[in-house]
Amino acid sequence: MEGKNSQLQQRKDDALPRGTGNLCQWYVDQAENATLRDVEGNSWIDFAGGIAVLNTGHRHPRIVQAIADQLAKFTHTAFQVTPYESYVALAERINQRVPIAGKAKTAFFTTGAEAVENAVKVARAATRRHGIITFGNAFHGRTFMTMAMTGKVAPYKRDFGPMPASVFHARYPNTVTGISVEDAIASLHDLFSHDIAPQDVAAIVLEPVQGEGGFHIAPAEFLTQLRALANEHGILLIADEVQSGFARTGKLFAMEHYSVQPDLITMAKSLAGGMPLSAVSGRADIMDAPGPGGLGGTYAGNPLSIAAAHAVLDVIDEEQLCQRASELGATL
After folding, report:
1. I want to staple 278 with a disulfide (CB 3.0 to 4.6 A). Which of 115, 135, 162, 305 is the partner?
2. Does residue 155 have a cis bond before it (omega within 30 degrees)?
3. Please, what's the b/e burial string for 265-304 (b: 16 or more CB within 10 A of its CB; e: otherwise)?
4. Global pTM?
């Protein structure tokens, strides 16, 4: 007799487009901490974590309780219509933690791609410039702007036609492929010579740890030179920490491993322990550049997700997950 997993796979192939590919051919029924159980009762160790979303594990009791408590109050109002204190309080907590020089401000959104797009909006509004520089092998999202910013054609850009303009790719240091820090910085100067004047560049966006084209850690010297180059030309530096944030590297944010501070930081994934929530944090003067109504979204900062994020920060601190990540990383 055909198993439940096979039956579900056939139903999936019949009902969903092939673009929604799956890594696994089995279907989850329950999850607890690092263990998944499928519809046939098999148990699996989860090394994917919902694509870096579950740094606090599946169904952490504190997070489940926080969502349940909020569920008893209200599930949605749209913050732009009827605001709520929990949103403000979470922004205050994150403002205190982000490695940003001076006073910080934070706005919440729903997905990582939304956060990156809004960081671009903020940067363009603040600088009155249009150019965005990202890096080869970067991944920034699946919307058209973030596809353009992503430095990998297959499977993200292939078949989808022209990408938005004013996005340029430099080289990212990579010891495996022999790209040195000097090569990467030289590629930026090449862009300034061949493609876009530095005074037209709003922001340079990078992942301190690339996570899609292989796991590549930005050398400290690269970030130091990048910060100096950005300062020289009045360019904002944006750290995309959608994947590297929330204790994954042994610090709450990967940028805390460096002496360099970005102007803006994007975050999502493990911010809310499995609930859809993202954020952009940055220097207050930069974050204030867009006018009222320029930032937002119907579900941006959903109260259930906000409640979960408060619990995530509590769990990371109380269970010392940054230290745990460092210890497990050293062991591995």
Report:
1. 115
2. yes
3. bbbbbbbbbbbbbbbbbbbeebbebbeeeebbbebbbbbb
4. 0.96
